[in-house]
Each structure stands twice: as structure tokens, then as C-alpha cells.
Design a protein that fits this description.
- The complex is a heterotrimer of chains A (about 325), B (about 170) and C (about 675).
- Chain A is an alpha/beta fold and about 325 residues long.
- Chain A is about 30% helix and about 15% strand.
- Chain B has about 170 residues and is of the alpha/beta class.
- Chain B has one domain (about 10-155): Rossmann fold (3-Layer(aba) Sandwich), CATH 3.40.50.
- Chain B is built from 6 helices and 4 strands.
- In chain B, helix 1 crosses helix 4.
- Chains in contact: A-B, A-C, B-C.
- Chains A and B meet through helix 4, helix 6, strand 8, helix 9 and helix 10 of A and helix 2, helix 3, helix 5 and helix 6 of B.
């Protein structure tokens, strides 16, 4: 009797939404589970790292890893799972592009920890207590993983075979990907398993976009009563749709929120943020610097807007002039 | 690149009609300027994709210079305005990402302004020399050095613990 | 074959040109070729004395065959100069010409750098970029566009006239547009021409009337070009015809209306005579004006100004009914294949140099005014008399007014020395006055010009070398009373002199027209720093511009005399004829196209195209580019947020590879 293919699910720096997405397969998950043998799924089943370590290399058919890589432990698990798996699949925006966690790449580790543990308005921490990597009490020692200085997408740590995009991936593309995997109908290595056409193609509002938007202002979604049917760009609201891979079935725009870009760029684009910037700016109305700047003032945080899910995979990867790591580690 | 006689490398995107021609004119006129700029010819400054600018920086350019026709003078009517609009936000975004504004420049240089090619290039080289290398490839390497030990450890599965305080 | 090349292994041939010592003097081309030879895919790398020479080109063609090369890179001069040459050589070798890429190591390198090592490093970096890029090149087809066999000539001076006649004689349709009410330009105002002293009118007016009557020439005077669209071979031009309040076809040029105007005497300043004569509100600029059609000046005509006039002119015109006070601006659209811009110059405004007293001292004249005074058909009938009616007994001619001067115009206007001498001769001939000529350097480069100078020396014209400091009526030495005193440092004698004269003539220099920038934009041309239109190449393409199919002739390109202007007009006509007779023009295949499968139909690109080449296909919900309208700027490509537009010859990948190449560290 042939053994069922072994599959691992793992999470790193993520919110748990990707786990939900797997569960969202609803009854379909039962069909999937019948066909596979789950060897690791920390959120749902009790397997230990040592169980994986004990497996022969390459014995897992595929690992679907979600979350960005921002600690040594996550990095280590990524390496371990990579070694044990035939296919390493980056599951969800964080593993694919760095995701929301990679917005931390605008700060150094120290700046971030200091802010989080000492400076946020809701923090009361007079002793400036911070988590320690190692703590001994009563002869017992506990340890914590160490944060890296840089938040990384999975493929910046280990070799990745496929990407399933989304924050989180939809049940449909998850199912299609798992189906393709089980049937052995996988595209060339490195493919992102979602349509390679930008979101507008699927967006119900597409027909309402005029040919010339000629932006005179940009508003953020909370600054405006959003028309439930009109193209967001025609309302002067930044929508990442034109620069974002489709496949999500335009659920956000259907819910009256503009696309924020979680599916990442198409295969033809190397930097999603640069491209949406190029497209939006070219279509601004004014021609003089002052007029242009006035319109662009409506985009106060271009990095956070254009790289909400992908700063790790931005061509520059990170704010480039942060204090050198060696110097900071000594602090 | 940590050479003591470090020389900035500047990637330039010149539109063929104005700035590239101006650079040709500077040549024909035998003007002398710094040898740090490598020109990539495009038909119009409107062709300059912000990706090109960021890619150049990421691949080791210390600065990027974009040259186009003066406002109103674009061979293609309006390409230069499109570049200007992109440039305004690109420069702000790059500043947010820690790139000094002087490293990325947009200049209008007409076909007749060979002299301006010279002054702009010399000025830019001087300013970047004062700022020092950007060296993003080097910084990327430095950032990734934190993964070295573990990669090694991962090939020989063993717990590694190097505790130090955050 | 070409398809095969795309899939087959990339085999690059690289050639570094010495360009004699032009490149090799500063760039170690041997070293560049040696290093390039070790780069991936480079199967052959050579350095060669002159790549653009016949043997150089032949070398490429042969190597392609012998070494099965499928990509060619040449590092030499600017692609704007020789890209075409090497593409042709590549094609000769049996390869698609677009498998070629060029590296500029002369204009952008050896000529502008001073450190051999740096220059060589740069050359190698640029070479690496080209070698990486060329691997991604695709075979492309050149598009051919039919050329409309017609020409628009802008400006009806001697340049425009000569070009128009040349093209019309060759059987091509010519539209000649002139801003003034008559053609003839500056030349029509001259009495004699240097150095032969033949009568300007005698040589010009027959040409003017031929233009007026030539079946192949449509002449629109008092008209301006309002708009230009399209591209080489197919320019769509809108011409604005200003109202002259005369129906041109009905006017027979009898001038009865002028005679019968309610103004019995001419009382308004006459522009053609530089304001020295008077005309009526209805007038003809000069007797031989072409077309022989009067016009009415709305600023001075009682009927047009006040609506209250006896309209005696209309009576006089009688059943010809040529006068139409309700005439409005009219716009005419035409389609032409080529354009010749010959818009000429303006003279320097002498009031900008107050030290010479023009506009202050009444006996200070500009040279153009004196041209009218010596002209037999001028306001004084050819008598050189001053404003008080007296003949001058002494005249000082000041050269270089608004030329060779850092404060005004730096350039030499080229014609002033010669026309000053011509005027000196004519004044002497007409009045017998003592003539002083104040010059900085005497510039007489032309056939018979130096001889003319010699002749003037013999005639007793006094040449004084020095830039005049001022012209003043402040007399303090005997003999200066009532005279204009020219103060000058005589740099040959070595002291400052005061020379009293009756009349001063300012040899004003030549300048671009005030609106030359507008004209330049209209035709998408460039201007040199001074504001004269820029030729494509000063030596190799002196009448071409950077806009394909648009040529320049005459003083709009820079100051020149009549022989040079006519020669240049002939050259521009010949270039236009070449295009027309070729029948079609090859367009650079750098157009953009949409990847239809991949396009999401976001419409971001559509408004960006200044040529409306991008449309939205409602049936497919995708953008489409009309290749015939696309001019290949690539703006839409850079802006496509999903990377679904590709520009031929400038594909993203090609540019990314170039970036990688120029930054490739050893």
C-alpha cells in the first residue's frame, strides 16, 4: 500500500491568519487530509522539532511555511524543513514577501524594541524590563529565540520552490496549489501559484474606471466616504490593484476597501512599490513641482503604502542607513 | 570597494534627444569632466522606470542621474513631466528608506547644453564623494552576516545558542 | 533563420574601435577588447583602427559568417553617429540588424576624460553593459512609412524662396508660409549685395514673382503655422491665415484703393522702410511685393477702428469687391511629408547699447535703415540724407553692435564686416562723404571678400581698429559742435580718439527671432545656446534637425550671408527631395506593445500617451497600442504597474542587464 505524501505546515513571524486560511478550506480540508499525511502543524497538532529532525532528508513532500523569518529559531526551522522537504512552499504574503512584519525593516532592532517595550503610549515599564534571551531562576534556565536585525522573506533564507501569495491566501488558490502538488502538475520552479494578471482583471469596479483619472488629490480610505461601486483610483484613493497579482477574487474591493497589494507583483515586475509609484505619479494632473507635491501630499507614507506586504522584497530590502548591526549588538 | 581610492559610480539615464545629445556635444567640444558616470540611453526620460533607479542603487551605484529635456521641450511632448512626477515621490520614498536626496538627481539638459552635462556631472561626483560610498551590495552582505552561523549549524543539525541581551 | 537565432546559443562578436587616436589616445582599447573576450558568450573580440571604414564594416560581416556570430557589439563613437552604419554591416553579415548594440566610448569617454585608467575602466564597464544587453536583443522588422510628396516651407526670405523653387521645379507640391504680407525677407530691403554690388532687387524679385505664379507652389503670406502633428512623411499642419481684409483672389494689385483712401497723404510709419517712410492704412509693402495684393492695417484704418469711414477704398475697388472688412482669421489644414524651416533672423536692437545713442541722437542709424536710404526705391529715393534733409559730410560706421560682446551676443554675426563695407562704399558713392569704419577685426572670409576690403582701402574709407566706447553730442574740441563724436581707442595708433561725424551707422548683429522658441517647439527642434535652431550634426547633417523630415536653412540656424543661405536652402531642398523620392521612410522599430494575455485592463497607460496610440478594447477589456501611432518614447512601459507593456529595443530586461553591466565590479 503506497504511503500518503507527507506534508508539513509551519508558521514563523505571522499573525495566524494563514493557519485560518488552511482551516477555511472548511469541509474541503477533510478531502485534503484524506490524501495526505500531516507531519507537522504546530497550530493544530502536537509534533516536536525532534520528530522532524529524526526524519530522513527529503522525506516530506512539501512544507507550506507561512510567516516572515525574523528570529534565529524561525531561521533554523526554515533550514530544517528545507532539508527535509522536496518542495519548500512560501505560503502567504509574509513568507512570500516579508509581509506586514517586514515593515519593521524601516527600523533597527534596537529602535523597535525600545519603542515597543519602553515608548509606546500604552506602555508602563519604569524599570525598562525587556525579555532576555536566557533567564535562570531556581537553578532552571529558560531561553527565548533571538530577533534578527532584518526581517526576511522565506526565499531570503532558504531556497523556495513555489509561492502561494495572499494575506492570507484564499481557500481557492490554496486548494489549487495543493491539488497541483498532489497531482504532480507543478509549473516551473519559482512560480507564484496565482494568476499572473493584475487584480483589475478580476475587480468588479473595473468598468467604472475612466480612461483618464488625472489625479488632483489622493485621499486615504478613512478620509472619504467611499463609493461602493466606483473604481477607487477614480475616487482618488490609492488602490494597489493595478500593480498587484490577481487571484484573490477582489474580495477587498468587493468589501469596499481598496487593494493594499498582498498578492505581490506580477512575474514581470521586480519591485511592486516602484511600479505602482510609477503608474500613479505619471497620472497626476499638475506639471509643476509645487502642484505635483500638493497632490502627492495625499500619500504621506509611500513606504508603508506601497510596500505594506513587501518591504523585505523591495529592491532596497530595508532602510539602508540604520545603525550598523555590529555596533548595535553591543548595546 | 573598500578601496582607499574609492571612486563613486553613477548610473545615468539620458534621453536620446536632449541629454544624450548634450553629452555627445560635450564630447565633440572636448569638455573635460569626471569619469564616474555610466550612461544608459533611453528614448525619453519618461521611459525611466523607478525600478531602474532602485535596481541601480541596489546593484552598487552610489548615485543615479536622470537627464531629460527641459519642461515644454520633450521630444515626446510630455514624457519629462511624467518623469518629474515620479521623481518627486520617488525621492521622498528613497529618503524614507535612508537614501540621501543628492544621490538621485533629475536634471533637464537640452541638446545644446554640453556645458551643463559637464557641470552637473562634476557637481554630482563631488557631492557623492563627500557623502561616501552607498555600497548597498556590501550592506546587504553585512545584513546577512547574521545568518552565517546558523546556516552552518543547519547543515550539521545541532542546537546553537549564542545568547546576548537585546 | 532569425527565429533560430533567438533560441540558439548566444555568440557575441565584440569590436573596440581605436578611431585613429581619438579613442585609443585615452582608452586602452586593446585591453578592453582583451577583457571583453573573456566575458560569457563572447566568442570573438577584436580591436581595430577604424571600425566605420569599409574594411571595418566588412570585418563584421565576414566574422558573422566565419564565426557564426549572432550578436554584434561595437564600442566606438556615439550611436547617434554610426549606429546605422554598423546595423547595416550586421545585416550584410546575414543577421538581423537589431542584433547589434553600440557602446559610446568616444563622445562620452575618450573625448571628455583625462585619466587613461579611469577612461579604460569606464569603457570596459559600458562594454560589459552592452554585452549583457545584446544577449536579450530580438530580431525586429523595420517599418516603412509612405512619404507624402509635399513640403511645407516656413519663411519666405531668400532661403525659403530658393528652397521652394527648387522643390517646385522638381515637381513637388510646395506650401510656402510667410508671416509678413510679402515674401522677400530681409534681402528685399537691400539695395546692393556684397561683394559684387549687384542689385538685390534685380536678382531677388524675379524669383519672388516665379514663386507667386508657380503652379506647384501654394503661397500663403500674412500667415503662420499654428500647429504641427504627425511624423516624418505625414505631418498634419494647421496654418493660420491672418485677416488682411482683402480677398486675395479678387485683388489685382491695381492699388486704386490706396490712391483713394480717405487719408490723402501717407501718415503712418512704414515698416518695410524701417519707419523712415510713411504709408496709408491700406498699403502694399513695396512695389514688387509678392503677392501683388494690398492689405489693410486694422490699427490705423478708420473703418476697422471706428466703423465710421466713407470707405472710398471700397468705391475705388468697385466691381472687383476685393475689400472685406469682416474678414476673420482662417485656419487651413494641410498634409505634408517634409518641412523646411527658414524663418531667418532679427537684427539686434541697437537701443540695448545706450552708449551708441540710438533712439537718442537722431543721426544715429541702424545699418538696415541706411540700406533703405541708399535704396533707389526707398523712402528718400536713394538719396542718403539725414532726418534734417542734409547730406552727411562724414559718416562713422560702428561694427559689432550686438556681436562679439559678452554683454549682449557673444557670436560673430558674420555678415556685418561685409555689409558695413558695402554701405561705406555706397555712402561714399552717393554722397562723397568721409567714411570711418570702426572694427575689432576685419572678417572677410569668402570669395572676393578680401578683395572687396582692398578695394575699399583704395577708395579711401578710413578703417580704425577699436571697439567704440561711445557716441556723444557733447562737443568740447573745435570742429565738434553740432556733430556726433565717436570716442574710440584706436588700438593700432595706441591712443583714444574723438572723431566728429554727421551720421553714425550701427552695424547691428543678427539674432534669433523673439519667438524662435515657439517655432522650435512647434517642430520639435532643438536650439543651440544662442537660440538658433540646432542642426543634427554640424558637419555631417548641417541642414537636418533631430526631428526626422524637418530641415533648416538660412539664418534661423545661425548668421550667414546670402550665398551661404542659398546654398543651404538648396541643400535642405535636396534632403527633402531625397526623402520624398525614396517614397518611404524607415522608422526605428522601438515601438511599444501590450502583452495582451497579461494586461489587466487597468487603463493606467491610456492617458499617458501623447499620441493617443493606446486605446481600450472594450470587447476584450484590454489596452491596445496602435503601432502606427506609437513613437516609441516608452513612457507607458515605465508606467505599466503590472509590467505588461514591452518596448522594442528598450525592454525592461535589456535595461536591467545594462544596469548590471555598468556596475559589474571586477
Amino acid at each position: 500500500m503506497p504511503t500518503k505524501p507527507k506534508i508539513a505546515f509551519y508558521w514563523c513571524a505571522s499573525c495566524g491568519g494563514c493557519e485560518e486560511a488552511v482551516v477555511d478550506l472548511a469541509e474541503d480540508i477533510l478531502g485534503v487530509i484524506e490524501k495526505i499525511d500531516i507531519v507537522l502543524w504546530p497550530v493544530a497538532m502536537d509534533f516536536k522539532k525532534k520528530d522532524i529532525q529524526a526524519m530522513p532528508d527529503g522525506s516530506i513532500v512539501a512544507t507550506l511555511l507561512n510567516g516572515a523569518i525574523r528570529s534565529d529559531e524561525q531561521e533554523e526551522m526554515a533550514h530544517l524543513l528545507r532539508r527535509k522537504s522536496q518542495y519548500m512552499i512560501a505560503y502567504g504574503a509574509c513568507a512570500h514577501l516579508g509581509g506586514i512584519p517586514s515593515l519593521a525593516n524601516q527600523y533597527s532592532r534596537e529602535q523597535m524594541l525600545k519603542y515597543v517595550y519602553e515608548e509606546t503610549p500604552t506602555t508602563h515599564n519604569e524599570q525598562k524590563v525587556r525579555p532576555q534571551l536566557k533567564w535562570s531562576e531556581n537553578g532552571r534556565e529558560v531561553t527565548l529565540p533571538e530577533l534578527r536585525h532584518v526581517v526576511r522573506a522565506l526565499d531570503q533564507v532558504v531556497d523556495v520552490d513555489y509561492y502561494i501569495p495572499g494575506c492570507p491566501p484564499t481557500p481557492k488558490i490554496t486548494q489549487q496549489a495543493v491539488g497541483a502538488l498532489l497531482e504532480g502538475k507543478l509549473p516551473p520552479k519559482g512560480t507564484t501559484l496565482a494568476p499572473d494578471i493584475a487584480l483589475c482583471d478580476q475587480c468588479a469596479r473595473k468598468g467604472t474606471k475612466p480612461t483618464d483619472v488625472s489625479f488632483t488629490e489622493f485621499k486615504r480610505p478613512h478620509q472619504k466616504l467611499l463609493d461602493p461601486e466606483k473604481c477607487f483610483l477614480s475616487q482618488g484613493v490609492v488602490c494597489m490593484g493595478p500593480a498587484t497579482r490577481g487571484g484573490c477574487e477582489a474580495v477587498c474591493t468587493a468589501g469596499n476597501m481598496p487593494c493594499t497589494g498582498c498578492f505581490g507583483p506580477t512575474s514581470r515586475v521586480k519591485d511592486q512599490g516602484a511600479k505602482i509609484l510609477s503608474s500613479l505619479c505619471a497620472n497626476i494632473g499638475p506639471r509643476d513641482e509645487e502642484g505635483i507635491d500638493k497632490v502627492l501630499a495625499g500619500i504621506p507614507d509611500p513606504v508603508g503604502t506601497f510596500y505594506r506586504y513587501g518591504l523585505a522584497k523591495c529592491m532596497l530590502r530595508r532602510k539602508v542607513n540604520l545603525p550598523p548591526q555590529a555596533q548595535e549588538a553591543k548595546v | 570597494m573598500n578601496n582607499p581610492i574609492w571612486q563613486p559610480r553613477i548610473v545615468a539615464f539620458f534621453c536620446t534627444w536632449c541629454t544624450y545629445t548634450a553629452a555627445d556635444l560635450a564630447g565633440v567640444s572636448r569638455m573635460k569632466y569626471a569619469a564616474n558616470v555610466r550612461v544608459i540611453r533611453v528614448m525619453c526620460s519618461g521611459r525611466v522606470d523607478p525600478q531602474f533607479v532602485m535596481d541601480a542603487l541596489a546593484k552598487g551605484a552610489d548615485g543615479v542621474l536622470i537627464g531629460g529635456c527641459h519642461p515644454n521641450d520633450c521630444h515626446y511632448a510630455e514624457g519629462n513631466y511624467k518623469m518629474l512626477r515620479r521623481f518627486r515621490l520617488l525621492q521622498r520614498m528613497l529618503t524614507d528608506l535612508g537614501i540621501e536626496t543628492e544621490r538621485v538627481r533629475l536634471e533637464w539638459i537640452s541638446a545644446a547644453e554640453g556645458e551643463k552635462v559637464k557641470t552637473v556631472i562634476n557637481d554630482m561626483v563631488e557631492k557623492i564623494k563627500a557623502m561616501g560610498p552607498l555600497n548597498l551590495p556590501g550592506r546587504f552582505q553585512e545584513w546577512d552576516r547574521e545568518m552565517d552561523s546558523l546556516e552552518h549549524a543547519a547543515t550539521q543539525p545541532k542546537e546553537s545558542e549564542k545568547p546576548h541581551a537585546h | 533563420m532569425q527565429m533560430d537565432n533567438q533560441k540558439a546559443e548566444v555568440r557575441i562578436g565584440f569590436y573596440a574601435c581605436h578611431c585613429g587616436s581619438n579613442i585609443a589616445g585615452m582608452v586602452d582599447v586593446v585591453e578592453v577588447a582583451k577583457k571583453a573576450g573573456k566575458l560569457p558568450h563572447v566568442v570573438l573580440s577584436r580591436d581595430y583602427k577604424y571600425m566605420c571604414s569599409d574594411p571595418g564594416q566588412e570585418l563584421i560581416a565576414q566574422d558573422i559568417k566565419e564565426h557564426k556570430l549572432n550578436r554584434i557589439v561595437v564600442a566606438s563613437c556615439s550611436p547617434l553617429l554610426h549606429e546605422h552604419t554598423f546595423r547595416t554591416a550586421t545585416e550584410k553579415g546575414g543577421l538581423n540588424p537589431f542584433y547589434f548594440h553600440m557602446v559610446n566610448i568616444r563622445e562620452h569617454n575618450s573625448w571628455v576624460h583625462t585619466d587613461r585608467q579611469e577612461a579604460t575602466e569606464k569603457a570596459y564597464a559600458l562594454t560589459q553593459a552592452a554585452i549583457r544587453r545584446v544577449a536579450h536583443h530580438k530580431a525586429l522588422e523595420v517599418k516603412k512609412v509612405k512619404i507624402e510628396p509635399s513640403v511645407l516651407i516656413v519663411g519666405g526670405g531668400i532661403a525659403g524662396i530658393h528652397a521652394a523653387l527648387t522643390m517646385a521645379e522638381a515637381g513637388k507640391k510646395v506650401y510656402l508660409v510667410e508671416r509678413e504680407p510679402t515674401i522677400g525677407g530681409h534681402m528685399a530691403k537691400f539695395d546692393k549685395t556684397f561683394p559684387t554690388l549687384d542689385c538685390a532687387a534685380c536678382i531677388l524679385t524675379p524669383k519672388m514673382s516665379t514663386v507667386g505664379s508657380h503652379p506647384n507652389i501654394t503661397l500663403w503670406t500674412y500667415s503662420e503655422v499654428a500647429k504641427v502633428e504627425g511624423f516624418v512623411g505625414n505631418y498634419k499642419v494647421t496654418v493660420k491665415r491672418k485677416p488682411r481684409y482683402i480677398i486675395e483672389d479678387a485683388c489685382v494689385g491695381c492699388m486704386e484703393c490706396i490712391k483713394s483712401c480717405v487719408y490723402k497723404e501717407p501718415k503712418f510709419a512704414d515698416e518695410f522702410n524701417e519707419g523712415l517712410g510713411k504709408r496709408k492704412p491700406v498699403y502694399i509693402p513695396f512695389p514688387q511685393a509678392t503677392p501683388q495684393v494690398v492689405l489693410i492695417d486694422p490699427e490705423t484704418c478708420l473703418q476697422l477702428k471706428t466703423g465710421k469711414c466713407k470707405k472710398t477704398c471700397v468705391e475705388a475697388c468697385a466691381d472687383r469687391h476685393a475689400i472685406d472688412f469682416n474678414q476673420k482669421e482662417e485656419f487651413i489644414d494641410i498634409q505634408v511629408g517634409t518641412v523646411i524651416v527658414a524663418t531667418g533672423f532679427k537684427t539686434f536692437d541697437a537701443e540695448r547699447l545706450p552708449q551708441y545713442g540710438y533712439g537718442v541722437h537722431k543721426n544715429v542709424y541702424t545699418a538696415l535703415e541706411v540700406e533703405r536710404l541708399v535704396n533707389a526705391s526707398g523712402p528718400t529715393g536713394g538719396h542718403v540724407v539725414m532726418r534734417d534733409g542734409q547730406e552727411p559730410k562724414s559718416v562713422g560706421i560702428i561694427h559689432c553692435v550686438g556681436s562679439r560682446d559678452k554683454k549682449t551676443n557673444r557670436w560673430c554675426s558674420r555678415v556685418c564686416c561685409m555689409y558695413s563695407m558695402k554701405l561705406a562704399h555706397l555712402i561714399k558713392e552717393h554722397t562723397g562723404a568721409e567714411v570711418y569704419s570702426f572694427y575689432i577685426d576685419m572678417r572677410t572670409p569668402g570669395k572676393g571678400y578680401e578683395e572687396f576690403y582692398d578695394k575699399l582701402l583704395e577708395e579711401g574709407v578710413q578703417f580704425i581698429r577699436g571697439r567704440v566706447g561711445e557716441v556723444t553730442d557733447w562737443a568740447y574740441a573745435p570742429g565738434e559742435d553740432g556733430k556726433l563724436v565717436i570716442r574710440v581707442e584706436d588700438t593700432l595708433a595706441g591712443y583714444v580718439r574723438r572723431i566728429p561725424v554727421d551720421m553714425v551707422v550701427l552695424a547691428s548683429g543678427l539674432e534669433p527671432h523673439k519667438d524662435s522658441q515657439d517655432v522650435r517647439r512647434l517642430f520639435n527642434m532643438s536650439c543651440s545656446t544662442e537660440g538658433f535652431f540646432l542642426e543634427r550634426h554640424p558637419k555631417l547633417a548641417p541642414v537636418s534637425t533631430f526631428t526626422e523630415g524637418v530641415f533648416i536653412a538660412g539664418c534661423c540656424q545661425g548668421p550667414r550671408d546670402i550665398p551661404d543661405t542659398v546654398a543651404q536652402a538648396g541643400a535642405a531642398a535636396a534632403e527633402a527631395l531625397v526623402l520624398i523620392d525614396k517614397g518611404s521612410v524607415e522608422l526605428e522599430p522601438n515601438t511599444a506593445y501590450i502583452l495582451e494575455q497579461e494586461c489587466s485592463g487597468c487603463k493606467s497607460c491610456i492617458p499617458l500617451c501623447p499620441y493617443t496610440a493606446i486605446a481600450f478594447a472594450e470587447d476584450r477589456n484590454k489596452a491596445v497600442i496602435n503601432e502606427a501611432l506609437c513613437k516609441g518614447c516608452g513612457t507607458c512601459v515605465a508606467s505599466c504597474p503590472s509590467g505588461s507593456i514591452v518596448q522594442n529595443l528598450f525592454e525592461d530586461e535589456e535595461i536591467f542587464k545594462e544596469i548590471e553591466g555598468v556596475l559589474a565590479y571586477e
